[in-house]
Amino acid sequence: MRIFDPHIHMTSRTTDDYQRMADAGVVAVVEPAFWLGQPRTNPGSFADYFDSLLGWEPYRAGLFGIRHHATIALNPKEANDPRCRPVLDLLPRYLDKDGVVAVGEIGYDSMTPEEDDAFTRQLALAVEYDLPALVHTPHRDKARGTQRTLDVVAESGIAPGRVLVDHLNELTVDIVKESGCWMGFSIYPETKMSPPRMVEILLRHGPERMLVNSAADWGHSDPLLTVETARAMLDAGFTEDDVDRVLWRNPVEFYGQSGRLDLSDITEVEPAFEGSSIRRGGS
User: pTM surpassing 0.85?
Assistant: First the structure.
């Protein structure tokens, strides 16, 4: 069973995590630029971070046969810091690079005017550079924030099918589905979504335009919760083809719109839920 984690912050993880992921069947990831927990104070720190996402992290992943891509953006939380806003002028240097498959994470944290401006400008960059957009919905007041997100997306002129609205839950999935955007769900050990809740959403809405990720940031998280969700889907009666669609073909289809998704070094993956072997090419 091949697994593509479409939103995971491997900068926060160890090489042991890469090994566990490879052993479990994770063979491709997308790492979005995000807030590192400690406030950054100047654009240079972002440049170093972006360079790491496009250089060091793909190298680390490749040591374990995992293909690594990234999305690049000024995240919503730091869009409120005037010391960080010049990063918006830095982004064009990176959005042309191979390995960048979307603009993201963009969107809302506290829904401030500064976040409005950064969100709008970065959606315009996605259109200009012909890239999809990965959108972060706020953790607080999520329903209102998600509706506001969809309103801004509609005003931007970007095609809904090129937008992934992430961190959804039972309260927000319906309006995003109706919008035509892709729907993303972060599976966490205690907060956000769990594998059983995700299965209930899939039973209700089906697998179309659904992406499941672990996020796996510096907080309490688990990079194998994509695999746990796959197991839960099979236990609930979904077919292996359904699992492959949600955990492989959907992220490939979404990020493939960038024209930069390179999975050529991945040849074949054996079912790995019970610790079976994995075959890969390259790396």
Answer: yes
